[in-house]
């Protein structure tokens, strides 16, 4: 049961990025910073921390591909970045204690890694034309705060589910 | 220092970077149609997106209405005074329309660049990362939507259809920074000033209106509309107003900053336009040339 639940919950988080969070986006209220939801990525990071590394990588590849096909015009950018971040988090979490604070830290680190990878790849192609300082203050910091809050909210219920799957 | 990559993994990483470059290269080609797995995925996700977006939007709309109620009284007053003007205006519009029709009849011209048919569509989602500026709507090729159709909101032009699945399609907003995202535009009231809208300045929140001739008499506050030439868009869709002008250093032209007329963030219902005047088919075009 909980094995079916896992892809379903990740899919819901993936959908929430483009629907619910877009209704609540800060641009609606005239603020000029960007809060980018990476909810599916956060859940994949939590999977990498608690399950086998292959879980995080496979989910990263699948949901990265979804994001590429549906939310962007280029295939490969999110697929590569999400899987790579999932792998690094899986390796890092083997060397750290798995408690609440370390997991939040890893989640922030992972989302920052994803943002930097995507920013780098998009700058290379020419889609992103934002200066580094603007990227950092207007985009990265608010994004990290939003996703850290999301991690704190889902941490306990989701970690419980993951422990059940691990058996 | 933990060992991140064994030799085998390093090879996998290098191979996946090669695959990444190949996939980006493949998708950067100018593809007109989606393959069937992409269409299937788009429709499946589209259905679940509309399940989420509509309730979320209506709840947000409810709270917005609550806060708007405060200044309803003064707004109402303003609107009432506008209403009188409106009656006057609508009479003159009817008059002009009739005149236009009769003049066209005299010219024996069936369709021109300004005419179009409309399709209503509801927005069901938006790209979450702001590098790509796409919105998703619930109309696909089964409803007659094709690529490169113009999309407008009640305030003005917002973008064009780029990807079409059976029941859903993707709209690229004018603010998207893609190199292929160009719209030929003119300054209203002065047919001589041609240019293309390409690119977006996110700091100024303005579109860049490029390739204007250096001696063109473009002024702040002028309205920019679509020219209807070259693309499948009708003529005369309001894009925005000129806010600033500067010279382009690289070539001998001017750049104008254009503030978009439509609010590109607050979109819930949009209209897809199909130009009545058909573009010439390529075969047809050749046949005509041979004649």
UniProtKB/TrEMBL annotation, chain A:
Q: Which GO terms describe its biological process?
A: regulation of cell shape
Spans traversing the lipid bilayer? 77-97, 104-128, 140-159
Statement: the UniProt record of this protein carries the keyword Transmembrane: yes
User: Sorted alphabetically, which keywords does the UniProt record give?
Assistant: Cell membrane, Cell shape, Membrane, Transmembrane, Transmembrane helix
The record's Gene Ontology cellular component field reads: plasma membrane
| Compartments where found | Cell membrane
Keyword field contains Transmembrane helix: yes
Topology in the lipid bilayer is annotated as:
Multi-pass membrane protein
Q: Name one Pfam family in it.
A: MreD
Family of the protein in this entry: Belongs to the MreD family.
Its protein name is Uncharacterized protein
Instruction: Look up and give the organism this protein is from.
Output: Fictibacillus enclensis
Q: What is the lineage of its organism?
A: Bacteria, Bacillati, Bacillota, Bacilli, Bacillales
TrEMBL record, chain B:
Per the record, the coiled-coil ranges are 69-113
Q: Which Pfam families match?
A: MreC
Q: Which UniProt keywords apply?
A: Cell shape, Coiled coil
Q: Which residues form the Rod shape-determining protein MreC beta-barrel core domain?
A: 123-273
Q: Which residues form the signal peptide?
A: none
Q: Answer yes or no on keyword Coiled coil.
A: yes
GO annotation terms (biological process): regulation of cell shape
Q: By its UniProt entry, which InterPro entries does this protein fall under?
A: Cell/Rod_1, Cell/Rod_MreC_2, MreC, MreC_beta-barrel_core
- Kindly state one GO CC term assigned in the UniProt record: plasma membrane
| Family recorded in the similarity comment | Belongs to the MreC family.
Q: Which purpose does this protein serve, as stated in its record?
A: Involved in formation and maintenance of cell shape.
Give the protein's recorded name: Cell shape-determining protein MreC
């Amino acid at each position: 049961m909980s094995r079916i639940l896992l892809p379903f919950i990740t899919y819901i988080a993936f959908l929430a990025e483009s629907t619910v969070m877009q209704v609540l986006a800060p641009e609606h209220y005239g603020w000029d910073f960007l809060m980018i939801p990476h909810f599916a990525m956060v859940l994949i990071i939590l999977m990498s921390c608690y399950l086998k590394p292959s879980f995080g990588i496979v989910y990263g590849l699948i949901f990265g591909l979804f994001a590429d096909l549906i939310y962007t015009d280029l295939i490969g950018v999110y697929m590569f970045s999400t899987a790579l971040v999932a792998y690094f988090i899986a390796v890092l979490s083997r060397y750290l204690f798995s408690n609440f604070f370390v997991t939040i830290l890893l989640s922030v680190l992972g989302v920052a890694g994803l943002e930097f990878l995507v920013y780098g790849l998009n700058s290379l192609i020419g889609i992103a034309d934002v200066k580094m300082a603007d990227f950092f203050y207007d985009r990265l910091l608010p994004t990290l705060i939003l996703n850290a809050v999301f991690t704190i909210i889902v941490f306990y219920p989701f970690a419980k589910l993951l422990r059940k799957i691990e058996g | 220092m933990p060992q991140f990559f064994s030799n085998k993994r390093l090879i996998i990483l290098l191979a996946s970077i090669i695959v990444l470059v190949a996939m980006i290269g493949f998708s950067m080609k100018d593809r007109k149609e989606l393959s069937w797995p992409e269409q299937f995925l788009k429709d499946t996700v589209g259905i679940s997106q509309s399940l989420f977006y509509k309730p979320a939007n209506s709840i947000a709309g409810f709270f917005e209405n609550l806060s708007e109620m405060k200044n309803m009284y003064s707004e109402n007053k303003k609107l009432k005074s506008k209403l009188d003007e409106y009656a006057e205006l609508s009479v003159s519009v009817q008059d002009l329309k009739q005149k236009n029709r009769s003049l066209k009849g005299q010219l024996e011209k069936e369709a021109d660049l300004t005419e179009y048919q409309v399709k209503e569509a509801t927005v069901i989602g938006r790209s979450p990362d702001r590098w790509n500026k796409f919105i998703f709507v619930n109309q696909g090729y089964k409803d007659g939507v094709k690529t490169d159709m113009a999309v407008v909101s009640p305030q003005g032009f917002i973008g064009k259809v780029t990807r079409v699945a059976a029941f859903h399609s993707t709209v690229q907003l004018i603010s998207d920074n893609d190199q292929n995202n160009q719209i030929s535009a003119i300054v209203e009231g002065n047919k001589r000033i041609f240019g293309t809208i390409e690119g977006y300045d996110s700091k100024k929140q303005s579109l860049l209106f490029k390739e204007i001739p250096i001696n063109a008499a473009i002024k702040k506050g002028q309205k920019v509309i679509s020219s209807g030439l070259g693309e499948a868009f009708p003529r005369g869709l309001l894009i925005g107003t000129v806010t600033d002008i500067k010279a382009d250093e690289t070539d001998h032209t001017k750049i104008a900053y254009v503030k978009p007329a439509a609010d590109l963030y607050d979109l819930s219902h949009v209209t897809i336009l199909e130009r009545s005047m058909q573009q010439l088919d390529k075969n047809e075009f050749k046949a005509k040339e041979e004649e």
